[in-house]
Amino acid sequence: MRGFKSFKVADLSLPKDFVCLAGPNGSGKSNVCDAIRFAFGETSLRSLRVKKAKDLISNSAKVAEVTVFLDGDEKHEVKRAVREDGKMMYKLNGDKTTRTSIQSLLKKFNIDDSGRNVIAQGEINNIINMNPRDMRGIIDSVAGISEFEDKKKEAMGDLDTVESRIREANIILGEKLGMLGELEKEREIAIKYLENRALFNNARGSIIKNEMGRLSSDLEKAIGDLLKVGNSLKGKNADLAELDKKIKALEDEKGVFLNEIQLRQQKSDLSKSVDALRLSIVRAEDELAEKKQAGAKLETDIAALEKEFKKQAEELKKTEADFKKADEELNQIRPRREEFVKLAGVSSLRKSIEDEKSKLASSKEEFIRTESEASRCRELATEKESVSSAGPEDSDEAQAAKLTGEIELLKKEVLEAKAELESLFEREKSLNSDIADFDRKVLQSREQAAAVRAQNPHLSSAAIANFVGQSKFRQKGSGVHGALIDLIKFDAKYANAVEAAAGPRLRYIVVDSADVATKIIAELKKANEGRASFIPLREIRAAPPASSSEGLGSLMKFIKYDSQFDEAVKYALGETLLVSDMPEAKRIGVGKFRMVTIDGEIFEKSGVISGGRLSTGIAAASTLAKLDQELAELKSAREGIYLELAEMRNQMSSVRSAKADKEVRAKSLEMELAAMRTDSEKAKAQADEAQKKKVEAESLRSKAKALDAIKSEISRKIAELESKISAGQQALLKDEEQATKMNEEANRKHTELASRISALEAKHEGIFNEISMRKSAMRKSEESLKQMHLDKAGCSSKAAELDRKLRNDKEQLVKKEEELASSSKEMEQLFKKMRETEAKAQEIGKQRGAIAFECDKLNKEATTIGTKKTVAETKLADLKAEFDGFAQFEYMDKPKEELVEITKSADAFLSANQSVNLASIEIYAKKKLEIGDVNDKIKKLAEEKEAIMEMITEIDGRKKDTFFRMFYAVNDNFKKMFKYLPVLGEGYLSLNKPNEPFESGLYIKLKRDKKEIEMGSLSGGEKALVVVMLVFALQFVKPSPFYILDEADSALDKENSKHLAKLIKETSKDSQFIVVTHNDMVMTFANVVFGVSRAEGVSKIVGVKLGEKLEHHQESGPQNAAPS
């Protein structure tokens, strides 16, 4: 010792045997014991009886240093020093080292930092005053029960974590099941909604098709009737012209007679007067006849016009009713414009594959466990065989070293498994987050694609064209060339004009012949891919291109294409003339040509004009293609993540299983090692069990063979499952493709609503225009009727006035003629001829009036037929526009009344369920898969919980076994102590609850003269002696090479001190005892007594008493490590 506590310099050689340190209080005896504990790494300042590390250094010294030499089979030098600043230094055999290395060395000699081989001052009294449960805690401490408690605490922590995850998973499962129940109702409504929508589309499409056929027939009839009326009118106009010639000839003849009469009448005033009257009468008669004829004609015209006016009023009323119905239908359907259809993806196949993967993971786990158990059986068999064949001492040492190495390796592997699980768990969270991101992106892409399709209904036919283009018919020599839009090129500025002029024909598929078209149609029906239109080059007959110098010329001039497609391009665009704008089209003449402006306004030859905002499908098709490509890439990436996640979950399950197996294995080995060390004193018993272990080894090898057979079966099962999963994944890829097609079909169906809205809007606008036209015609008819009534009243008034004047003129003429009785017969003859001419002219005039009336009637009939033709053309154009939205309908051959009832019923359901969640179909399927995943997770967590519970049960069992082995060993040692001191009688240890040892208290039972003696009845010295015997019994379970007793005899009287000294004397044959005492009786039995004194604060070793066997011990030398 150098500068340690009260010692400045002291060297002390402690021989093996019974050594006493004696001296007055405060001399420094206990400091010698403190020095040994300090050197061996004691860190508790309280145990070293100081408040701070600086107090370990003696006065005037700057460093406290203690060196202990261990002498025995192995020789070691242990050194420890502390400086004033509290820094420590350790040395082992002259080399710097660490406290851990010192502790590892001492453990080999059953010396550890628990202080089991030291009885400090006051410790005996503390034990005497302990309650039974605390006394039992001493056995717990010596047996190492705290290690089991730590393991159990760690396992309980893992159990809490697993149970927490199970609770969370069950909460999530409950939420998802609740959501699934709600979604199931929404899904059923959504399916019914889609069925009713399809029914509505089929019925409505059939009605439109039938109506278009009827209107086409009406239009053909109107055109025929108009042609007949035109021919009749042409003949009547020719008759009128002929009669006009005759009337003119008679008028000329009449003029000749009048001129002659006037010449003759110039001879006298009377004659002139008569001639004037006669001329006035003739004119009045002519005018009166005209007025009467005009009145009759007006009467007929008024009756016809009133009849037409009434008919127009009825048609206007019907048209307004149609307008109201179309407006109501449009208002009902317009709110559903924003609905979006989502179909379920792959339904049950993915779940099936996940189930197979789960089975595969379970099989792999079972394989790992079986393989682990088989290996364990072989190892145990090898161990038992080696134990049965090796000698007791060699076997113990080799086996202990092997077990220690295995335990360290298993603990390292457990830590690595924990780290790997944490890493995999973090990666799992990251992948789950990635899947959520991909799902969101896929949904966004689908919504964008659906929006593009909704804004461009014609793209539904583009999807079919893509299907045909990708099918086997697109192979070389198949006769399929592709959609027309893909076969032509043009400047971007003409895109609107081309799109408007060609319309849906741009998406028609160009094929060589009708035979090719029929084959593809059969393929479309088989694949359930909808409808498509074809242009067979061999059979198509197109009108010649528009040939005019007007405008910019034929639209075909601005299109580039292969000459083999000439007929197809003519069919789509040939009749169309390209003009710069609408004013130029009107200047050329509406109805003269079919014209299209650069901005896309259409002027049909029929006079129909179409215009407004045009969304070209060319840019939309490009956008849609990009979106489809993005969607495919997102799906592929998401599938890769699903596969990685499944593999990772399998890996996590395997790692958890392996970790649990290694933890149980490590704990088993630790317990086995502890048992082996405890049973080292029973080497002789091992020889008796060698044969038993050999039999057990053979049994274990048989078990290993059986496990190998099971392992082979599991391997075969794994191979089958992997084959099934591989086949399932291939099928899954096909189903993914089918799901994509189904989704496209859903998007196509979604666009039908937008097309129907567009058609209804066109119908709405057409009816509105028809109402405006009819109202305008009625206003004109009403104005004409009013004017005719005014003209008729004027004619009647004028006729009455002329009639009065004619009667008056005739009366005067009679008088004048009487006066001219003497006129010549030539004059009379002239008048006669003139009257005859007038009669002829009047007769021809009547004929002309009748023909003129018929012409007027024919003109009105032509106007009526023309109006009907225009209305039929407008309705037909509107129906065609609406019919374009029903390209995919299935025709229903049923009466109109039944079809109307079907549309009403389906539309009533659609109107009543406008807020239907169409996405519920896909979400339902997705949530069902998620529930399956959660159930799988709960199942795996339950398995993990079961494994933890099994490990806890095993820990509790091992803990109990370890405790009882220690208890029985201590009890055996305690009983043996009384053999050294028979005067005390007999003693043993007892538990008040042996079935629940850790709830039990430890009791010391004594017998003297076959009578039970209570500890309370013993004297203080006897109690102290019994407790010292208990401490010795504890220490001797794992014997230490030396023991330190610091005033353990302080409570003993002379007799009991003698008993203690005898006990130490007997037991010091195997171990070294260093005893600090004031008791002379104890010193008497010691082999060596060192005296310690203190002067001026410094302790010294002042005297030595040599026992009679000291020289013997020095000669023979110690066999175990002991301090000196």
Any chance you could write out the topology, listing elements then pairs?
Blueprint: E1 18-22, H1 29-39, E2 63-71, E3 76-83, E4 88-92, E5 95-97, H2 99-107, E6 118-119, H3 123-128, H4 132-143, H5 145-265, H6 269-333, H7 349-389, H8 392-455, H9 459-470, E7 480-483, E8 488-489, H10 495-502, E9 509-511, H11 514-527, E10 534-536, E11 553-554, E12 560-561, H12 566-573, E13 576-579, H13 582-588, E14 594-597, E15 602-603, E16 609-610, H14 617-678, H15 683-819, H16 825-883, H17 896-912, H18 920-980, E17 986-991, E18 1002-1008, E19 1011-1013, H19 1020-1035, E20 1042-1046, H20 1054-1067, E21 1072-1076, H21 1080-1085, E22 1088-1095, E23 1098-1106, H22 1110-1116, E24 1122-1123
Parallel strand pairs: 1-21, 1-22, 6-20, 9-10, 13-14, 20-21
Antiparallel strand pairs: 2-3, 2-24, 3-4, 4-5, 7-9, 8-12, 11-13, 14-15, 15-16, 17-18, 18-19, 22-23
Helix pairs in contact: 4-18, 5-6, 5-16, 5-17, 5-18, 6-15, 6-16, 7-14, 7-15, 7-18, 8-14, 8-15, 14-18, 15-16, 18-19, 19-20
Concise structural overview:
The chain has 1124 residues and is of the alpha/beta class. It has 22 helices and 24 strands. The strands form 6 sheets. A 6-stranded mixed beta sheet has the order 6-20-21-1-22-23. Strands 5-4-3-2-24 form a 5-stranded antiparallel beta sheet. Strands 11-13-14-15-16 form a 5-stranded mixed beta sheet.
